[in-house]
Structures are given as structure tokens and as C-alpha cells.
Write a structure and sequence with these properties.
By secondary structure, the protein is mainly α. It contains 2 helices and no strands. The protein is elongated.
Amino acid sequence: MNQRPWWVTGVQLLGLGWYIAIAIVAGTLVGLLLDNWAGTSPILLLLGLLLGVVFAFYGTYRMAVLFMTSQEDSGDRKEQ
């Protein structure tokens, strides 16, 4: 079983949600700013949105792997 309190897991998942939101919004804003600067509307906006989504999924995957391995490690320690 898990040794951590429920709220620690909740805070980790909340941080994951914020990471996804910030990655997507930041990519979109950077694309929008570059579009306004270069006058290439909406190409860079869409590219920034796509990159933000890619970074969000990649970061989510990395955080999920770390979360899952920490769950397995805590279960291994209790069995020993």
C-alpha cells in the first residue's frame, strides 16, 4: 500500500494539470506574438500551439513515469 497521505498525491496531480495548461498556453502565446511580429498569421500560432501540446504530452509522460516508479518503490519497501 501507499505510505504517502492522499493530499500529497493530489498536489502532484494538481501540479501535472498546471504543467499541461502552462505548456499549451505558453506555446500559443509565443506563436501569437511571433505571428504579430512576422505578419504570418496564423501559421506560427498553430505551430506554437502544436509545440505546446507536444511538450505537454511529453512532460505528462515523464511525470507519470516518475509517479508510477515512486508508487512501485514505496510498495517494494513495505514488503521488505
